[in-house]
Amino acid sequence: MRIRVIGRLLQIQRVLVRHRLDEVILATHLFRPLRYMFYLSPATWFERGRAGSRGERIRLALEELGPVFMKFGQAVSTRRDLLPPDIADELEKLQDRVPPFPGSEARAIIEKAYGQPISEAFAQFDEVPLAAATIAQVHTAKLRSGEDVVVKVVRPGVRGRIERDLEVMHTLARLAHDYAREGYRLRPTEVVDEYEKTIIDELDLMRETANAAQLKRNFTGSDLLYVPEVHWDYCRSNVMVMEQIHGVLVSDLDELRRRGANIQRLAENGVEIFFTQVFRHNFFHADMHPGNIFVRLEDPDHPQYAAVDFGIVGSLDARDQHYLAENFLAFFEHDYNRVARLHIDSGWVPADTRTDELEAAVRTVCEPIFNKPLAEISFGQVLLRVFETARRFDMEVQPQLILLQKTLLQIEGLGRQLYPELDLWKTARPILREWADERLSGRTLAQDLRRQLPDVSESIRMLPQVLQQIVQRASEGRLRLKVEQAGIDELRRELRSSARRRDSTIVAAAAMLGGIVWLAVGAAPLPGIVLAGAGLLGVVLARATG
Q1: Same domain, 168 and 309
Q2: What does the alpha-carbon distance between residue 374 and residue 376 come to, in Å, rounded to a whole number?
Q3: 291-309 burial, b for 16+ CB within 10 Å, e for fewer?
Q4: What number of CA atoms fall less than 13 Å from residue 193's CA on the CB side?
Q5: Beta strand pairing status for 248-249 and 304-307?
Q6: Which of 377, 266, 289 is nearest to 78 (CA)?
Q7: Are 415 and 267 contacting, i.e. CB atoms less than 8 angstroms apart?
Q8: 225-226 and 304-307 as β-strands: parallel, antiparallel, unpaired?
């Protein structure tokens, strides 16, 4: 383990001790004996004495540990049903009340990115941040053309801190994969790889700008979701400028009610937006915590969501999207046999899994939650039971679905806050059914055929030339078929190694046998003993290396 990783783990332990979160150390077994070193530090005594409530101590520890840990706190904060109220209230502050960095630094970053004074780019720029988050913070400004905008600036030095913590996560993931009993099934290294791609992409604001533009295009003409306009000419890799949204934070229920918002419709629209993004557009906003969602109330009876912060988006490949939709539909229709067969067909569980056993297990988990409003169920608790079932059937974690699962939990948490009586199944089922019927319609098939026709035509046009080359190479004896198979190189290495061990054993055994024969016929005893001893040692070594 690299020195930097060990140093970071010790630093994490120090922060936990200082904020009186010793139970975390006892639970994780990380350098448990070394916690006494921190207890002996006078600085720890004074800082531990000043610590506040339990929730505040957790929030402060996450803020001190950096962006990766604050992201975790943000995700957990949406699940008030899984957290004590005092902790949920504090973690909610991580959504948009992270300590800011100085506005003068933001000004310097913008001027360096633009290569000109900020007064030449904007008619007005407010150095006091409007909001601060884990990766960046936002300032209000006015363009010279008169539009009100927000300017998002990446925190200085944040990439280095994230890369350091990712190195720690990779190290722990490798240890879990190699030594944890279920490391192969949980696939921790692949999960961390997936998370690394997500959070590194979030540091590139040009990518976020492109995500916003795509999402806005997807919802053009829709009254479900409003996406602010981006100003491409002002966007750089660490600076992003977009239209300023005027609305009410979705978590401010008192203000929404005061202004007469239709809360039930708002909750149902949130579910529709999620399933529309995932299955109709295959491009979904994957960071939908309440700090990123506003509500526009031009018409309170038809409230409209407005999204910001497009750094994390997700999409699925066609196979996963198909199996996921079919699973949802089978689940809504209580067809547990179909759910079991889909899990086997998709490769999410081993191919030799008994369908009837998996069907019974899924029914046991899912049946109790049907026909209940959101207030009486918890996906978090259901997921825990699903994980227990998964362990029994050696179900592997699907890293490509982690973003989707996280977003679904955020949507459920948001719906629970807005309208606990929401019937999630009743809202989602017609959306999925419409999507499934549309996929199989003649119109969709014709569109797919028309879209693929140029590729098919090009393949047909190239076919005579390809056949001619194949025939020519075959007639000249130059035709070779390249076959690739997973693990073939490893198999070849093992065969070569086995051959070497076999040859070594044969030679050594021959030497030993020759020595014994030499001794038997009464030839010079010393060469015979040496030859037999060397042969015996060769046999032992050859077998030992095997």
Answers
A1: no
A2: 5
A3: bbbbbbbeeeeebbbbbbb
A4: 8
A5: unpaired
A6: 289
A7: yes
A8: parallel
Q: What pLDDT, in 10s, does the model give residues 119-137?
A: 999 999 999 999 888 889 9
**b/e for 369-384, b at 16 or more Cβ within 10 A?**
beeeebeebbbeeeee
Distances in whole angstroms, Cα of residue 323 to Cα of each of 51, 142, 329, 338: 49, 47, 10, 11
Report the C-alpha gap between 286 and 288 in whole angstroms: 6
Which residues in 263-346 belong to E strands, given as ranges?
Answer: 284-285, 293-296, 304-307, 313-314
pLDDT digits (tens, 9 = 90+) for 254-293: 999 999 999 999 999 998 998 899 888 999 998 887 888 9
Catalytic residue among 193, 287, 394, 455: 287
Find the domain containing 532 and state its range: 496-545
Q: What is the pTM of this model?
A: 0.69
List of residues 6+ apart from 383 with CB closer than 8 A: 405, 409
Co-location of 426 and 278 in the same domain = yes
From CA 210, how far away is CA 523, in angstroms rounded? Answer: 87
- Confirm if 183 and 136 have CB atoms less than 8 A apart: no
pLDDT at position 505 is: 47
- CA distances from residue 252 to 200, 226, 290, 293 in whole angstroms, order as listed: 31, 18, 9, 11
pLDDT higher than threshold 90 for residue 71: no
In a domain, 215, yes or no: no
Phi/psi of residue 347, each to 5°?
85, 10
Length of the chain: 546
Instruction: Please say if 22 is a catalytic residue.
Output: no
Residues 282, 380: one domain?
Answer: yes
Rg for the chain, CA atoms, rounded:
31
Of 44, 71, 94, the one marking the end of a domain is 94
Whether the CB-CB separation of 165 and 173 falls below 8 Å is answered with no
pLDDT at 164: 84
One-letter amino acid at 289 equals H
pLDDT 10s digits, 82-119: 677 788 788 878 766 778 999 999 999 999 999 999 99
Domain total of the chain: 4
CA 461 to CA 484: how far, in whole Å?
28
The first and second tokens of residue 540, run together, are 């032992």
Q: How confident is residue 432, by pLDDT bands cut at 50, 70 and 90?
A: confident
* Nearest to 256, CA basis, from 307, 293, 219: 293
Residue 467 belongs to a domain: no
Instruction: Looking at the structure, tell me whether residues 46 and 177 fall in a common domain.
Output: no
Residue type, 164: R
- The two tokens of residue 196 are 């690394």
326 and 403 share one domain? yes
Residues 152 and 166: their CA atoms lie apart, in Å, by 24
